[in-house]
Amino acid sequence: MGMVEEAFRGIWPDREIKYDFSIKYSGKFKGYNANVKMAGGKIMFSLSRNWKQISKDIKIGLLQELLARLFNEKITTPNIDLYHIFLKKVHIAVPKTKTEPMLEESFGRVNEKFFAGIIEQPNLKWNNSSTKLGSYDYGSDTITISSMLKNADSEMIDYVMYHEILHKKHKFSSKNGRLHYHTREFRSSEKSFPNSAVIEEKLKHLKPARSQAKKKFRFFKFF
Ligand SMILES: [Zn+2]
User: Fold this and answer.
1) Which of 26, 80, 162, 204 sits at 20 to 30 Å (Cα–Cα) from 210?
2) Three-state DSSP class for 212?
């Protein structure tokens, strides 16, 4: 039995396997990212090359999590739990190669002011998103900030940076097969940023009119 079959059986012991599974290791992913695609009867997993050296038990957890997302089912297994533990610790092993001067300054200010300087600097980069002001990616330990903020007041950048650092700090919790990022604890930490209500209002005006919804900081892509 292949590893994907084993992962599949660990979730659905009795379900018929009517798919062709494949796993490919790819250099296109940063850190420990991965994804899965289904086309026809084929289910194709792509994993960052770094996964090659990771133990099978953890890898099965990753495959199970991807299967659960693919089939849109809420699932918990011992392997998924193991994979979550791995994901919460993996930032220690991820190389820090990316930085940008303006983001590094913001990170430094926020780290000193709110975290007594104890948060290890993640990879920092800009992107051109017009729908998300920021995101944190666990698999590559990367904070990405939208370039819409490049000309904004430093307190606005700092506020988004603070939000993303909180993701790095608080990680996530898993309940009934679902991952929670913006927990009550997270939200209460978030409010301790001075002037946060006013800044939130200002941030809304940065956004294109049609996507002013609450999606602002939606965290995405966490593998
Ligand atoms: Zn968030």
Assistant:
1) 162
2) coil
Domain ranges of the chain: 3-92, 101-217
Q: Each residue of 89-100: pLDDT tens digit?
A: 999 888 899 999
31 Cα–ligand 1 center, Å: 20
Grade residue 44 by pLDDT with cuts at 50, 70 and 90. Answer: very high
Measure 216 CA to ligand 1 centroid, in angstroms. Answer: 8
DSSP state of 148: G
- Tell me the CA–centroid distance for residue 100 and ligand 1, in Å: 21
pLDDT score at 218:
41
The CATH H-level (homologous superfamily) assignment of domain 101-217 is: Metalloproteases ("zincins"), catalytic domain (3.30.2010.10)
Q: Separation of 143 CA from ligand 1 center, angstroms?
A: 11
41 C-alpha to center of ligand 1: Å? 35
Please state at what angle helix 56-70 crosses helix 3-11, rounded to 10 degrees.
Answer: 60
pLDDT band at 220 (very low <50, low <70, confident <90, very high): very low
